[in-house]
Design brief:
The complex is a heterodimer.
Chain A lengths: L4 E11 L4 E11 L3 E5 L6 H8 L7 E6 L2 E2 L4 H6 L1 E4 L11 H11 L4 H14 L15 H13 L5 E5 L7 H16 L3 E6 L2 H7 L2 E6 L2 E6 L1 H8 L2 E7 L5 H7 L4 E4 L6 E6 L2 H12 L6 E7 L3 H9 L6
Parallel strand pairs in A: 3-8, 3-9, 6-7, 7-8
Antiparallel strand pairs in A: 1-2, 1-4, 4-5, 9-10, 11-13, 11-14, 12-13
Chain B lengths: L1 H17 L1 H21 L13 E6 L4 H13 L3 E4 L1 E2 L2 E2 L2 H9 L5 E4 L4 H7 L9 E7 L5 H32 L9 H6 L3 H5 L3 E6 L12 H14 L2 H15 L1 H6 L5 H29 L8 H25 L3 H18 L11 H7 L3 H13 L9 H21 L5
Parallel strand pairs in B: 1-2, 1-5, 6-7
Antiparallel strand pairs in B: 3-4, 5-6
Chain lengths: 314, 413
């Protein structure tokens, strides 16, 4: 089903005076695929999205959208894209309907067709009964949904969503994720950036993990977790641990000291239950040393920690 | 592209319309200034005082001692500066007219050749052998100020004429001058109006050649264009704030992700503000016509200056939008420019009473050129061809503002 690439990114670079924000990104997205771009803040996701939506000029590389080169034929390529930016990107003093009329016209929609598209996207994001309400009166969740609706108006072949659930409550978040999932099932290719692990795991067919401008892993979430994911035991102490204790922990798993005071450590292990029992046995003789202990089963975040030694949300 | 431009313009008008308070302020502010300041400052200009002297060109080739004494008297008057040469050369009537026409000086006093001889030959019959002294003024000069200066000049000249003619009169009346010289001053002090009328001097007030002026300028004719220009440049604040808001909300980003050029976006975005400016100008001049009864002069010329003025104001707005990174910066810069350029450009104080340095600096403001254009049309009665220089300078300002703004403008910051 997903054998034709609709989005081809080839050796993409973006350099600023002192940094290379994007360093040789290469990936392809298949038609109808739900593709995730996962990474911490500052990983280069937003710059990448800016380039892929034609807003930022890259230093080098090539982007093809549905067979159209983005940089030599930007107008044609952009017509195939729908962008849902991280900001609400709406006019708060206008009604939801007026916002959609404006964004529809920008994409060349008009008359009856525009009216039909507005009705359709409002239905998708379940805002039909709020169409004439001023956006300023909307909750963050409703604004996010309208933001998505605006990106869908012109029936794009690829929908780029940049952190579309930031700042919304759980209920709205679930509704948004459900809408996006349905869209994807109806055939829309989705490029989704997030730093929420659970969203990426739940929605994405494949995930590219970005760090410091590079893709450090790219595969299905299941394969990434299977191949690279370890369980993580996070321990916080009331005082710095000595080197002797650290040496003793070494046989439990890969120990990473997180802070200089040696009060926080992470242990990566394939057997979290057994390892945590061994760990508790080891430190039970040190009265009052243990402050907290948290166990994470293998997931995309532990994949990231495994690859970088840092938390995804640092 | 045209459809997209129209879509952006309609959206912008809707957004503007929904913020009616801000829109109303754009119209109310200059209207308030026109109404209040025109009434309040009527005749209160400080020009002609010691601190703000009026410069008067004087032409007196072979005028003789009576002219020299009148000039000497005028030189002693506080608030007047008499200029007899220009670039080292004694002034001629033509040169003086030329300098006033260019707006370099507001007034010229022209004594005819052989003034003294001709004055002394006149008889007491005012119907015969009148000697004409010409006062040439810039039609844009404040009327109240002109009346005051004119009165002072006329008084000084007639006084010297009477002094000069006293020996002749005494001779006529008494047949001798013996022992009377010491009482000449007293005689002058007693001179009444009827005797002044018999001085034989006719005081003719004209405007430089080429000006089609059938009437004198009023405070309204000066204040309506001045405060209209002042108000027009307040669009800078509204326009720049709107651009900043779009950047902040990320709507520019969303628009530019669409198949749309940056040029189309900017045109669509600026168009409503440009139209608001034109409506603003129309409304302000309507108040001038219907409330104060001013005559606008050549309408096509007025439209040309207004179009160029609105372009300069919009250009400055875009420049502020390009330079201001925060709301505070945009607000501060907009107000600073609106007030400072207005003051410097002669919107609040006429440029001709400013010191030379300020006069020169005023030429670097679009305000001064727009006001000169409006004055040419409304007060001096000039037509389309005559205001082309002002139009080109205003369009030049607009071009510079737009070029620098586009160079500095970032859609994503």
């Amino acid at each position: 089903m997903m054998n034709t690439s609709i989005f081809i990114v080839d050796d993409l670079w973006k350099s600023y005076a002192k940094t290379d924000a994007v360093q040789g990104l290469t990936f392809q997205i298949s038609r109808g695929e739900f593709f995730g771009l996962l990474g911490p803040n500052g990983a280069g996701k937003t710059t990448t999205i800016g380039i892929l939506s034609g807003l930022i000029e890259p230093t080098g590389g090539r982007v093809s959208i549905d067979g159209v080169d983005l940089f030599s034929r930007p107008m044609e390529a952009k017509a195939r894209l729908g962008l849902v930016p991280q900001n609400f990107a709406l006019y708060p003093t206008l009604s939801a309907h007026d916002n959609l009329v404006f964004f529809g016209r920008i994409y060349g929609l008009k008359g009856k067709h525009l009216g039909e598209r507005i009705a359709r996207v409002l239905d998708i994001v379940e805002l039909t009964d709020r169409a004439n309400q001023t956006v300023a009166t909307f909750s963050n969740g409703m604004k996010r949904r309208l933001n998505i609706a605006a990106g869908l108006l012109h029936e794009p072949k690829i929908l780029i969503l940049d952190e579309p659930t930031v700042g919304v409550d759980t209920q709205s978040r679930n509704a948004i994720l459900e809408s996006i999932h349905s869209l994807n099932k109806s055939g829309v290719t989705v490029l989704y950036t997030t730093h929420y692990i659970e969203e990426a795991q739940r929605l994405c067919d494949r995930v590219a993990i970005m760090d410091q401008g590079k893709i450090i892993a790219l595969d299905t979430p299941a394969r990434l977790i299977r191949d690279l994911g370890k369980g993580i035991i996070r321990i916080e102490f009331n005082a710095g641990v000595d080197d002797k204790l650290l040496d003793q922990m070494d046989h439990i798993g890969l120990v990473r000291v997180i802070d200089d005071q040696k009060m926080r450590i992470h242990i990566e292990t394939d057997r979290t239950d057994q390892s945590s029992r061994e760990l508790l046995d080891l430190i039970k003789t040190r009265d009052g040393l243990l402050k907290t202990l948290d166990i994470s089963e293998p997931n995309l975040e532990t994949v990231f920690i495994h690859l970088t030694g840092r938390n995804l949300r640092d | 592209m045209i459809r997209q431009i129209i879509a952006i313009a309609i959206k912008e008008l809707k957004v503007l319309w929904l913020d009616r308070e801000a829109l109303a302020l754009l119209f109310a502010m200059p209207m308030f200034f026109i109404l209040v300041m025109t009434f309040a400052l009527e005749g209160v200009f400080q020009a002609g005082s010691k601190g703000h002297p009026i410069e008067i060109l004087v032409v007196h080739k072979n005028g003789g001692p009576v002219a020299d004494r009148a000039i000497a008297d005028l030189k002693k008057m506080e608030g007047l500066i008499l200029i007899e040469t220009y670039e080292g050369i004694p002034l001629t009537s033509d040169k003086a007219e030329q300098l006033i026409h260019k707006g370099v000086y507001p007034l010229a006093l022209v004594f005819p050749e052989g003034y003294t001889e001709r004055i002394l030959k006149t008889t007491n019959d005012p119907q015969k052998e009148k000697v004409a002294v010409h006062l040439i003024s810039d039609p844009a000069m404040n009327f109240q100020l002109l009346a005051t200066v004119k009165g002072a000049i006329q008084g000084a000249i007639e006084r010297q004429v009477l002094f000069a003619k006293i020996p002749q009169r005494l001779k006529e009346r008494l047949g001798t001058l013996g022992g009377m010289e010491g009482q000449l001053e007293n005689l002058m002090g007693d001179t009444n109006v009827s005797e002044r009328e018999k001085s034989g001097v006719v005081f003719i007030h004209t405007f430089p050649k080429g000006f089609n002026v059938g009437r004198r300028p009023t405070a309204t004719e000066q204040n309506v264009p001045a405060y209209t220009i002042f108000g027009v440049f307040f669009i800078v604040l509204t326009l720049a704030s709107s651009f900043l808001q779009e950047k902040k909300d990320g709507t520019f980003q969303r628009i530019l992700a669409a198949p749309l050029s940056k040029t189309a976006l900017l045109i669509g975005k600026l168009l409503p503000y440009y139209l608001v400016n034109l409506v603003q100008i129309g409304l302000m001049f309507s108040i001038g016509v219907f409330v104060f009864g001013i005559k606008l002069g050549n309408l096509p010329a007025l439209v040309i200056i207004s179009i160029a003025l609105a372009a300069a104001a919009n250009g400055l707005g875009l420049l502020v939008a390009a330079l201001g990174k925060t709301e505070a910066q945009v607000n501060g810069l907009s107000v600073l420019l609106a007030i400072t350029l207005s003051a410097l450009g002669g919107m609040m104080v006429p440029t001709f009473i400013m010191p030379d340095l300020m006069k020169t600096l005023s030429l670097f403001t679009p305000h001064a050129w727009a006001l000169a254009g409006y004055h040419d049309i409304i007060i001096r009665g000039l037509g389309t061809k005559d205001i082309l220089s002002e139009m080109f300078v205003l369009l030049g300002f607009a071009s510079i503002f737009f070029v620098v703004a586009l160079w500095r403008f970032r859609f994503d910051q």
